[in-house]
Design brief:
The complex is a heterodimer of chains A (about 350) and B (about 160).
Chain A: H1 2-18, E1 19-21, H2 36-44, E2 49-55, E3 58-63, E4 65-70, E5 73-78, E6 92-94, E7 97-102, E8 105-109, E9 127-128, E10 131-132, H3 137-162, H4 171-191, H5 196-218, H6 231-248, H7 251-258, H8 265-311, H9 317-354
Antiparallel strand pairs in A: 1-3, 2-3, 4-5, 4-10, 6-7, 7-8, 8-9
Helix pairs in contact in A: 1-3, 2-8, 3-4, 3-5, 4-5, 4-9, 5-9, 6-8, 6-9, 8-9
Chain B: H1 8-143, H2 147-161
Helix pairs in contact in B: 1-2
The chains are: A alpha+beta (about 350), B mainly alpha (about 160).
Chain lengths: ~350, ~160
């Protein structure tokens, strides 16, 4: 308990210390017309600072560390040094290099350039992107979710250790049906009674990891830290599933890909490329499904809320709120369904890879 | 396009974080939790099986009891039957023996009676012979003179003697 508690408190302390009021720049929202597309994309995409809300025209946000791998080595500084600038105006000097932030991308100015210049399509001409390893708001929320997962499941595990008869009490009583659901409804039927045990840690971890991040994405004050709706996140998990599938593939699995048994030879040759493509399409479908479902939900909710600003009247608010409430409720179900689908399909692929010849 | 291009930084941190989470949870959460759950399930299974066994044993036991009771009952029946037969036999034997004895006694009695009778007849004959001799003596003594009387006497005597 103590280490977990320490982690959480230090995270909170870090968060509070990053909280900064920024009064340097007066934002004049009145002049610019409301652009729902820009607003929605800004919320759905990743960001280098954790914007919470605006207060008297200035944003209140958590500054997150920016970590860059440049030609001059690793450099890191706080995102607060950009002063909420996202248009490439503020230049930050660090480790002998100059950086600007443009549409949530960090650019490194070429040597000698004092300000960023654009071509006709608004692409920077005198800057390039360094390798960006920043702790973005998605990374930050991912770590919060990890802390929460550790808190929940280490507590659950300790609960079992302390109970003498193995009867779950407290949070263990709540988590056990979920864990047993993953085991009995996903692991056992998809992989098989004899082999499922090896894959249980992975299946349980992705199930709860995706689920909790789906839920985090729905919490409004966290400003749509849309981790599970980010293609990088779903890509990484799909790659894990792909790697595990490929490495657990037995002779039977590879035979079904390269030399399909039970069909004539021309058919075998015809099926081989299809099966090889299928090998990659499976994880790609996992990646796109989770990304698209979660992002679509966010886009719908944000679009409904945008109606208020598009029509510039509060009269539309009840409609917007009612519809977005409806969609939010559906999204709450979708959080669990998408986590379930990702997990069950991963399990299915593992099951296919380890299936014995029959 | 930005939306569907995986950013390297997030891929990097997701991979590291996920591996970390997988290792920590796998070691300190899933293993003990799944272990405890399956241990409990095995325990329940074993308890159910032993209860079933106990029930079967009870059934066997009561079946045994029934069988023993039945055997005892039939044994009692057999014993009673045997006793009854024995009794009947004994009565029969006794009856037969008694009858035989009675017959024997009767036969003996009859034999004795016959012998007695024979002896009595012999005695009687003897007495009659003596009587006859004494009568004849008397008659001879008295009637030697009187011839007619003699003859009459003999005659009557002979008539009397015919009775035997």
């Amino acid at each position: 308990m103590t280490p977990v508690r320490t982690v959480i408190f230090s995270a909170l302390f870090l968060a509070v210390s990053f909280l900064g009021f920024a009064n340097e720049k007066e934002i004049t929202q009145e002049e610019t017309p409301f652009d729902p597309k820009a607003m929605i994309l800004h919320h759905v995409k990743d960001a280098h600072e954790f914007h919470l809300w605006d207060w008297r025209g200035s944003p209140i946000s958590l500054s997150l560390p920016i970590i860059l791998w440049t030609d001059n080595g690793l450099t890191s500084f706080s995102s607060s040094r950009f002063h909420h600038d996202d248009e490439g105006q503020t230049i930050v000097e660090s480790n002998g290099r100059s950086f600007v932030k443009l549409h949530e991308k960090i650019y490194q100015l070429d040597a000698g350039a004092s300000s960023i210049s654009y071509d006709s399509e608004h692409h920077p001409t005198n800057a390039h992107k360094p390798v960006d390893l920043s702790i973005t708001r998605n990374v930050f929320m991912m770590w919060v979710s990890v802390a929460l997962l550790l808190l929940i499941f280490l507590t659950t595990a300790r609960n079992y250790k302390n109970s003498k008869d193995g009867v779950p009490k407290g949070i263990a009583g709540f988590m056990e049906p979920l864990i047993i659901f993953v085991r009995d409804e996903i692991g056992k039927p998809m992989i098989g009674e004899h082999k499922y045990k090896k894959y249980m840690p992975y299946l349980l971890t992705i199930f709860f990891f995706i689920w909790i991040n789906n839920i985090f994405g729905l919490i409004p004050i966290l400003n749509g830290a849309n981790l599970s709706g980010n293609i990088a996140f779903t890509f990484t998990l799909a790659v894990f599933t792909f790697i595990i599938t490929t490495f657990s593939g037995n002779k039977n699995y590879w035979k079904h890909i390269f030399w399909m048994p039970g069909v004539p030879v021309p058919m075998k040759i015809f099926l081989m490329p299809i099966e090889i493509i299928g090998m990659f399409v499976k994880p790609i479908s996992l990646m796109i499904r989770l990304f698209a479902n979660i992002t679509a939900g966010h886009v719908i909710i944000l679009a409904l809320m945008s109606l208020i600003f598009v029509f510039k009247t509060a009269a539309i608010a009840p409609v917007s709120v009612a519809f977005s409430l409806f969609i939010t409720v559906i999204e709450i179900i979708v959080t669990a369904i998408q986590a379930y689908i990702f997990t069950i399909l991963s399990a299915l692929y593992f099951g296919m890879a380890t299936e014995e010849e029959h | 396009m930005d939306l569907i291009t995986p950013g390297f930084g997030l891929v990097f941190w997701t991979a590291i974080t996920f591996i970390f989470l997988l290792v920590i949870l796998g070691k300190f959460a899933w293993k003990p939790i799944l272990g405890a759950v399956s241990e409990r399930e095995e325990g329940i299974k074993a308890a159910l099986a032993s209860a079933e066994n106990a029930r079967k044993e009870m059934e066997n036991l009561s079946a045994d009891n029934d069988r023993i009771l039945k055997e005892a009952r039939s044994e009692r029946q057999a014993m009673l039957k045997e006793a009854r037969e024995l009794k009947n036999n004994m009565i029969e034997t006794a009856k037969t023996e008694a009858k035989e004895e009675a017959n024997k006694l009767v036969a003996q009695a009859q034999a004795a009676i016959a012998a007695e009778k024979k002896a009595a007849v012999a005695d009687l004959k003897h007495v009659v012979a003596e009587l006859s001799i004494s009568i004849a003596e008397t008659v001879v003594r008295e009637e030697l003179a009187d011839k007619a009387k003699q003859e009459k006497l003999v005659k009557s005597m002979l008539e009397n003697a015919k009775l035997n």
